[in-house]
Amino acid sequence: MNPLFSRLPRLYSTMAASFPASSSPYTRAVVSSMRKLYPESLAEKSFDNTGLLLEAPFNHERRQRNSVLLAIDLTKAVADEAIARKDSVVVAYHPIIFRGLKSLTLNDSQQQSLLRLAQAGISVYSPHTAVDATPGGMADWLCDIVTGAIAPSTDSTPAIQKSSSTQYSQPAFPQPGTVRPASAEPHVRTTIHPSPPPVPEGMESAGMGRLVTFDTPQPLTAVVDRIAQGTGHPGGIPIAIPQSASVDTMKIRTVGVCPGSGSSVLLKAPGGIPDLLFTGELSHHEALAAVERGSVVVALAHSNTERGYLHAVMREKLADAVQKEWEVTRSEGLRTLGDGSQDGTGVVDALQKAYGDAESFVDVSERDRDPYGIMIRHV
């Protein structure tokens, strides 16, 4: 027998004993940062599935880039993008694993993406409703749009591309970009459904949904303009108003906001239904009921109330947090490894190289988009 073969069992058992399976040091720094920014305890655990959903083991023979890819939905296109970029982590807002799995096979497209990512050494983290509830999270970002506290700093008008149709363009999608601070209309902001205690220190306003109450009622058209600019929505804004009303004369004093699907939050507000409901989607009957009571509904399609947050807020916030976390992790890791002695397996050398890499990148997916686009009629 080849002497090398006889040594393999002992070699790998020694390696496993010294270095138990775990994700890469950089991945752990990213996960730690996400948990600090958006505590998992704030997520709606009655239905949600948040946290580290796929933990790819650290492969000392093939190390990923110190980079994070942000997306709303982990589609095949996003998985392909992450694999091509050699990212360490995909932070996918919506959990790709939502209900219990009885198997993982290549026959299911979502399971196939998970298996391919694991094979490539890429982990998946999902924060979902923790981002909705956290102060400064997705719901507060929507409030900033409604009140004019932020404005686009780059052109958010999507490019309209011709199609073979004589009437309509190619489907256009919202084009969210970076934002700048602006002068907000005076208002009071409250949480519709506060998170139950215990709440992390400094996050006392956490909870689902926000209610904006303007000091002075706002023209509906002004609020709609802010929503269109802030979300980069193309072509038009889906809106439902009472049949006896006009967009030119309606005034809005209260706005309820909830990213994604907002019916369970906005239609059950303790103080009654607000003047305007701003969310991603309501069912036909839910929207009809709100309008019949005199309210306005703006529903942009589910993820169009979510994706812009990745560009406007999360990318920079996570990049700063990971950079600080990674510096601490690196210094502790290099100190623990000591003088660089070798273990004969290559693991220590790989860890030294991993901890020695100070770079860190956080980017937003270029392939992530809502399933629904808008074909715009030629003028």
Automatic annotation (TrEMBL):
The keyword Magnesium does not apply. A divalent metal cation binds at H94, D132, H302, E306. Residues 154-182 are annotated as: Disordered. Gene3D superfamilies: NIF3 (NGG1p interacting factor 3)-like. It comes from the Eukaryota. The keyword Chloroplast does not apply. One of its GO terms (molecular function) is metal ion binding. Keywords: Metal-binding. InterPro entries: DUF34/NIF3, DUF34/NIF3_sf. Pfam families: DUF34_NIF3. One of its GO terms (cellular component) is mitochondrion. Residues 154-172 have a biased composition (Polar residues). Belongs to the GTP cyclohydrolase I type 2/NIF3 family. PANTHER family: NGG1 INTERACTING FACTOR 3 (PTHR13799), NIF3-LIKE PROTEIN 1 (PTHR13799:SF13). This is Putative NGG1 interacting factor Nif3. It comes from Aspergillus steynii IBT 23096.
